[in-house]
Amino acid sequence: MLILQTVNELKEWVRDTKKAGDSIGLVPTMGFLHEGHLSLVKKAKAENDKVVMSIFVNPAQFGPNEDFDRYPRDLKRDQELAEGAGTDVIFAPSVEEMYPRESQIQLTAGAQADVLCGAKRPGHFDGVLKVVTKLFHLVEADLAYFGQKDAQQLAIIESLVEDYNFPMAIRRGETVREADGLAKSSRNVYLSGAERNEAPHLKKALEMGKELVLKGQDPIEPMTKYLTNHTSGVIDYIELLDYPTLTTTIRQNAILALAVKFEKARLIDNIIFHPKGN
């Protein structure tokens, strides 16, 4: 497995790989890998000749009071896990390498960014679009892989690729969970022991809410009551929207999503389903 840290190294590798006629799958990450990331690598490995994983904690998507400086980082551990899953190349640039100067062109997410996490994290998805656009151009991937746990991010990136005719396709990866139902996340390490015991109730609340939707009932109040009774966290939001448009009028699939703030971790989770149970 190759470890590349500069744009020029990556571009040279991509040029040689394309010359050889090999397809490329891209798995963008911020590192501190877990089974969710590795499942995307395995999916990419099955569908491409070569797999590139980016490991880059992107400052452009963190707000001034968010956890950029303390976001967990362990590149050596990540390298071992990535190689074991079948990654061919890790691209792990510095901030200065990715952003050598202040950007003169700004990308702005549309209405999909005005709900869920985006409603209280202004500019977050603009930063996501910035980094994935650079990665898409640099890697020239045929396919790029994103997990459904970050469903809003996934929907926005799919819109980017479709609206601007990127010569690639996005592959969705299912949310990978612990045995007790908690969605895998790099931020789970911030949970205290008591909070970790409470955290599986997020998935249970979503399952309860889905059943209410299938019965034609509004799930928000019952889910709020359930989470209040079973966790010490503060509910940031619970929303039922169309997916992937993220509008309030559900036309095809629905997403039931929530975010709960614990003392040192903000957890998100969701379920995507057909509202008529199909």
Automatic annotation (TrEMBL):
Catalytic activity line of the entry: (R)-pantoate + beta-alanine + ATP = (R)-pantothenate + AMP + diphosphate + H(+)
Q: Which UniProt keywords apply?
A: ATP-binding, Cytoplasm, Ligase, Nucleotide-binding, Pantothenate biosynthesis
CC terms in the record's Gene Ontology section = cytosol
Q: List the active site.
A: 37
For the ligand ((R)-pantoate), the binding residues are: 61, 153
Database matches in InterPro entries: Cyt_trans-like (IPR004821), Pantoate_ligase (IPR003721), Pantoate_ligase_C (IPR042176), Rossmann-like_a/b/a_fold (IPR014729)
Annotated ATP binding lies at 30-37, 147-150, 176, 184-187
Q: What are the binding positions for beta-alanine in this chain?
A: 61
Return the SUPFAM superfamilies for the record. Answer: Nucleotidylyl transferase (SSF52374)
- Subcellular location as annotated: Cytoplasm
Classify the source by domain of life.
Bacteria
Broad class of where this protein is predominantly found: cytoplasm
User: GO: which molecular function terms?
Assistant: ATP binding; pantoate-beta-alanine ligase activity
> To which pathway does this protein belong?
Cofactor biosynthesis; (R)-pantothenate biosynthesis; (R)-pantothenate from (R)-pantoate and beta-alanine: step 1/1
Q: What EC number(s) would the UniProt record show?
A: 6.3.2.1
Family the UniProt entry places it in = Belongs to the pantothenate synthetase family.
Q: Tell me the function of this protein.
A: Catalyzes the condensation of pantoate with beta-alanine in an ATP-dependent reaction via a pantoyl-adenylate intermediate.
Q: What else is known?
A: The reaction proceeds by a bi uni uni bi ping pong mechanism.
What do we know about how this protein assembles, alone or with others? Homodimer.
Protein's name according to its UniProt entry: Pantothenate synthetase
